[in-house]
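ok trying again, last paste got cut off:
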Amino acid sequence: MISVSICSPTPDITAPWDDLVRRASSNVFMNPLALTVANETGFARIQVLSAWDDSAEPRRLVGIWAFRVRRISRLWPALLEALPYNYAFLSNPVVDPAFVHDVIPAFLSAIRNSPLLPKVINLKSLDAEALSFEMLVNALAEQGGAQLRLSESTRPFATPDVGTKRSGSTRKKLRQDWNRLSAAGIVDIVNNRAPDVREAFEAFLKLEAAGWKGARGTALLCDAADAAFARRMVVTLAEHGSASVALLRVDGRAIAAQVLMYCGATAYTWKTAFSPDYAKYSPGALLIDKITDDLFSTGVAAIDSCSYEGSFMAQLWAGRRKMADLLVDVGPGRSLAFSLEALRQRGYGRLRRLRDRVRSWSVPVPPKSKKVSLAAHR
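nice, full thing came through this time. structure:
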């Protein structure tokens, strides 16, 4: 009794979506409002798979999975990517747990049978502890789809039971930084989930552009299309109660900002920025530390860092979530497109690991000479 429709995103299913996320797994990046913004602005070409329980009256939405249709170059086969747009950090579908064993196979079959959709899917940043992940792996095996696990990792994650670290050197430093910052002026934190977040989000954009991301050219304001998309998405989500911007202020001036998104009982720390003038106080870490308990006090059951194991949030939170990157082919056998993309992904992974190693190299300068032999530091 499950039917799957494939179409461009539309805000028309916002009410069914709200009903779904009250009982389903969480992924704010599958929110139809954000998907519609990305599609309408041309930021990404998106197709949405919607699963419906046709036995209900009226029929009920029981699953959503959105994909970006992407082509690396004109000579490269088109792919589906389950991170539906840049700045999305979770690929899992949102599925009613009572229907997951029917919905996931139905999604895969719908992609396989569609004459318009590519059959190779890039699944980056999958929550490997979600029920949908286990069902996806099993359904692919049962249907004969090829799958390649590209990488595994963990992501900082917080719950009321496994949340903020309450002791240790990090906790001591945070107390010291807060006390020193409090001596510099009147310190407060605001995180109003108001419909209009434009002013607070602009404060975030300015802080991000003034920091290291601006220097590297990766801040949102460094790209007009990225900034336009982010502004419209955050404002649209906030109008629906699904986004807010927390600010850490000194004498009324924002020195750190945290853009938050919400889906069901989960909050997502989407993007962080802070003023380099106050870097010695660790303002970004202070803000995250303070709002964590505040979020839990409002009924939030989990906070997804949207970050990687080596981020500063790993020092603040004790919880971890297992993550995985998969490449799958829902067509019969292993296609040429799958083999080419596997080769590209493996090469890209090697380059990233090499880049990270180079960045981690620390070559000490001898006290009496600025010349260093690299041979001594291999």
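cool. Residues 160-318 form a domain with the Aminopeptidase fold (CATH 3.40.630.30). The two ends are 62 Å apart (CA to CA).
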